[in-house]
Each structure stands twice: as structure tokens, then as C-alpha cells.
Amino acid sequence: MGLFRLIFLGLIIWLIVRVVRALTAPARQGRSPRHREAADSGREARTKGQAEIPAQRMVRCAECGLHVPRGEAVCDGERCFCSAEHRDRFARH
Ligand SMILES: [Zn+2]
Predict the structure, then answer these.
(1) How far is the CA of 65 from the centre of ligand 1 (A)?
(2) 83: CA distance to ligand 1 center in Å?
(3) How far is the CA of 51 from the centre of ligand 1 (A)?
(4) Which residues contact 86 (CB under 8 A, 6 or more apart)?
(5) pTM here?
(6) CA of 5 to the centre of ligand 1 (A)
């Protein structure tokens, strides 16, 4: 009978674990994973957008007047250009 009691005890413990998991996990995760995901991505996009504003400053091409992100612009001292070609063309003026 000792083995039966052990199995029975194990079954009860397993059952308790399952019940506790069923009570705690879905309450936090299962209710609205899509909602949370949307909120997280929205927050992420907002913080990303805020972070990108100072990094992606637009500069004006001195040759054609096109506005290009600072990271993509070709800068020569104070002047910035949309491409190396325009930088060269501006130098030839
Ligand atoms: Zn240009």
C-alpha cells in the first residue's frame, strides 16, 4: 500500500501545481496577450520615435536643397549634401 500512497501523493501535488498554474498564469498572460503586445509595441515605437528625432536630424543639401537625414548626408565642413556627387558639383562652382 506504500506505493499507492506515494503515487496518490504525487498525483495530488501534480494536481495542486496545475491548479495553481491555471489560476495564476492565465490571469496575467492568457487574458489579453494581443493587448499587451500592442501596448508594448506601441510604447516601443513611441520611445524609438523619440530617440530617433535627435539622431535623424534632417540637413539640407547645399546644392539641390533636398532634405536628407544627417546620417545619410555627405558633409563637408559646415555644408551638407544629399550625395557625394552634389558635394563635388558644389565645389566646382
Ligand atoms: Zn543634392
Answers:
(1) 6
(2) 6
(3) 26
(4) 61, 62, 63, 64, 74
(5) 0.41
(6) 83
φ/ψ (deg, to 5) at 69: -60, 140
- Interval 43-64: pLDDT, tens: 555 555 554 455 578 999 999 9
DSSP code at position 72 = T
Q: How far is ligand 1, taken at its centre, from the CA of residue 64, in Å?
A: 4
Enter the C-alpha cell of residue 38. 500592442
Work out whether strand 67-69 and strand 79-81 pair parallel, antiparallel, or are unpaired.
Answer: unpaired
Distance CA 74, CA 81 (A): 5
Which residues, at least 6 apart from 68, have a Cβ–Cβ distance to it below 8 Å?
A: 58, 59, 61, 80, 82
Q: How confident is the model at residue 14 (pLDDT cuts 50, 70, 90)?
A: very high
